[in-house]
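Form 12-C: Joint structure prediction
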Amino acid sequence: METIIQTRNLHKTFYNGEVSVHALKGVNLDFREGELVVILGPSGSGKSTMLNILGGMDTPTQGEILYRGTPLQNMNKYELTMFRRKAVGFIFQFYNLMPNLTTYENVALATEIADNPLDTAQVLDEVGLGDRKDHFPSQLSGGQQQRVAIARAIAKNPDLLLCDEPTGALDYETGKQVLDFLQKFNRTMGKTVLVITHNAGIGKMADRVVYFRDGRIDKVEVNPHPVTAEEVSW
Amino acid sequence: MLKRKLWRDIKGNYGAYVACISVLVIGMMLYVSLSLTLDSMNTSIEDYYRKHDFAQGFARIVKGSAGLTEDLARVKGINQVMGRVVQDVMVYRPEGEDTTTVRLVSFSGPDQPLNRFRLEGGRIPVAGEKEIMVSPAFLAANKLQFGDMIPLIIKGREVKFRVTGAAISPEYIYEIPNGLTLAPDPKAFGVGFVPYSTVAPLLEMDGQINDLTFTLEDGNDFRRVEQPVTRVLEHYGLSQLNARKDQLSHSMLEQEMVGLKASASTTPVIFLLVAAGILYIMLRRMVEQQRGQIGILKAFGFNNREIIGHYLGYALLIGGLGGLLGGLAGSWMSYAFAKLYQQFYNIPDLKGQFSLTYLVVGLLLSLGFSVIAGYQGCKGVLVLSPAEAMRPPAPKAAGRTWLEKIQGFWEMLNTQGKMAVRNVFRNKQRSILTVIGIACAFSIMVSSRAMFDTTYFLINFQYDQVEKYDLKISLQQYVDKTQGITAGKHLEGVREAEAILEVPVTISHKWLEKDTAVIGLSKESKLYRLLNQNGEPVAVPDSGLVISNQLAKILNVKPGDMVTVKPFLGDRKERLVTVRKVVPQYVGLGAYMEIDALSKVLQAPPVTSAILLKLDQDKVAEVRKYLQGGQNVLGIFDKTKMKAQFEQLMESTSASQAIMLSFSFITGFAIVYNVNLIALSERERELATLMVLGMTEREIGRILVIEQGILSFVGVLLGIPLSYGMLSAIADKMATDIFNMPVIMEPGSLALGFVGAVLFLLAAQWKTKGKISQLSMLDVLKQQE
Ligand SMILES: Nc1ncnc2c1ncn2[C@@H]1O[C@H](COP(=O)(O)OP(=O)(O)OP(=O)(O)O)[C@@H](O)[C@H]1O
Ligand SMILES: [Mg+2]
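Section 2 - Result
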């Protein structure tokens, strides 16, 4: 399978006045087209930092990052914005919906700026919110809001879907539902999905599991037989 | 501790504070400078009047013996009387350049009882010598020096006067020859003080006078002496008798002061209110945003007083700084105003001033406004319990807006547009205040421009539409009408000549009465036309009066009513005359009649007092030169010149117009910028999310632009009627006998306001753009929701 995004000797240091934090200390990773990767690791090990750089939200201090062979590390703000717009979908622990847009409109906001979006109504049906499309976020439960956020990320039809603790704020059952959508998107559309989580159990559904420790890759496990989201438990 | 928080908050958001303070400074600056100017005008004029014994009554006769002053002094209620010779003469200009008229005013000495002049330089003319004093403005405009000679044409002969000094008098603070002249032109007109013993013989008026001024005994009213004075002077050709309030210079000054007072009491208030609104919005948002912090402070045991005190600290700081800076700037500006006024008024001792009183008053006013607005903004703190405060605020119910019901409109918008529209309705109170603020800024721009338009309209109406002649030759004595016209027609280059007859009268209706002049016009007058509302000519009726709407209002008459007309000339008998028509007029209180009918009222054969001439343009100067010094020529009024000069005057006021424009621009900018900053900080998270989604800064900025654009658009729409309201209020406040301001709103003024609004919107957006790119997605999204 072809490599979609790769990093070479990636370093990230945060400078805050006197103190500096070395969050990434030379990370080499390749992600392949259509892969579902779960990223595990203790708090503060650099997972989010890595994901943000992969998604063009942040830039490395040193090292290379190549998206389909194009280096991202030297891109300016505008080019990175365009990269996010065309290639990346994000899902966070917090839903970050626009409070004054309806479910439908929140998703449409993303599809209107995408090159090759999916049908908004259809995506909403898929995440089971077809009958809630005229509701405002304040009228939805947390799980429903997270599904809107997923729909918003998926509807752009990005080649790279980056999820930072997507189930972090959800109960067990709802969390599993969310994982199910992510897996479906990965399997049916053949898109690359990266999921950061604290639940090792979720690793079972991944093609690969990457372990972070202290800004470095601790180990990478290949999972020859990933299970369905239905079957994972934690 | 809390103090440190205050400074940090201000540092982090200083743009918003600067914007708010600027508006406050503008308001205070206008308040202080206008009030100071008004005050110092008032005191220096009052002082001047008192020290120089400015008369309270003014009478004009044809001729009478100097002993008349004693007769008049015997009238009960009259205190001091002074008789003089007053005569307009022309300066001899062999080249025939500009006409210059000098009003010779005789004096008996530096210690004469009334209207004493004030020597501003040089020396006082010696009795019996052909020496003269003129105003400093006249000296400068005519490039004269002490010792220079001015050739005057007196009784058809050239008489040279030596300029010995410069002097001004309370009677001619506003140095204009008559009510037709709107602004002083020291090159064309000036007052010349000459010893009585010099001028009386030259005018063949030895031992005689033609002008009397008097003061009243304390507590006496002019109206009570009017009748007896008239009786005394009636037989000497009394042509004018008026109280101080109708004295030309005084009434023009009053007019100016009325306008100044109107500005001082309204404009600053608008700016102060806008500043208060901005402050209110700022504090209210701050309190909402810092709920959590407030909760923690409360939990720590800070009480409500301390917390409110903390937030009011911002208001006090803004109010204090705004008041102080505004007060100082206002004092500074009062010097500029004093300079400006001295260009047009001969007021001695008019200076700008630094006034501690106004500084303190301004400071208190500014603090008062700020604290009230601030308290309103942050009183929400009071009702929060610590636990409540630490919870996030109950989400504002987001929802649909009524705009969405408009068919077709909603579908036209993309989602970004929809978001912008809903944002407008998100915080209704803030949106309403924003709209009002923008409407105010817009209206100030529009009305300051419209005032300009109005004045132009007024002048054009009078001098292009109504008065179509080139030269008006006023005669010293009435002449036979046909003879006058024939003489006029025989001048070289004259295309048309018409006779008019100006008669000073008192018109009364029931208990209402007014002194004015009736102008007799020929039926088919082409050079002096009466016009109706639509600018179409109105025929002069065979008999009866046509009066101006302002006069009709004062006398409360309508067409068909009978009024009493009492001329100051001829037999002075009262006559009943029917009002036939009412026409619009903006300058003066006109009354018109058919010229022969008017002669009949005077029981005279058809006569004329002035000839109107329409000439070939290249002959105007020549004719003027030919006529000056003519035996019966009292004065030559060159309309084109007058208009050009007026336009120049208007140019000079364009500076103040530009200042008002920039003030309102700053205000509009401050409002939009502030609201933008607030929206930014309130919606950091949403904006960061949009960035994550891949929206460019430009697209995000556009959402704010659309939102502010809608508010500005509504503000502008609201501003249109508001501008009309403001203009009508100004017109109302400024309406006097001299001016009757119509409310004129040219599309150009509205366009100017519109362009201004677009510009301040864009400027604010441009400043906001920097703030958007400073926004860090990561920092924002890391925070808990
Ligand atoms: N903006 C920042 N400024 C300074 N230090 C930062 C910043 N962002 C992250 N760090 C530091 O970098 C290190 C890695 O942080 P990162 O957020 O990537 O960890 P993480 O693995 O995602 O942890 P968690 O599981 O708790 O989310 C941490 O020590 C963190 O304090
Ligand atoms: Mg993290």
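Section 3 - Comments
The interface with chain A takes residues 395-399, 414-416, 418-419, 422-423, 426, 685-686, 688-697, 699, 773, 777-778, 781, 784-785 of chain B (CB under 8 Å). Chain B has a mean pLDDT of 87.
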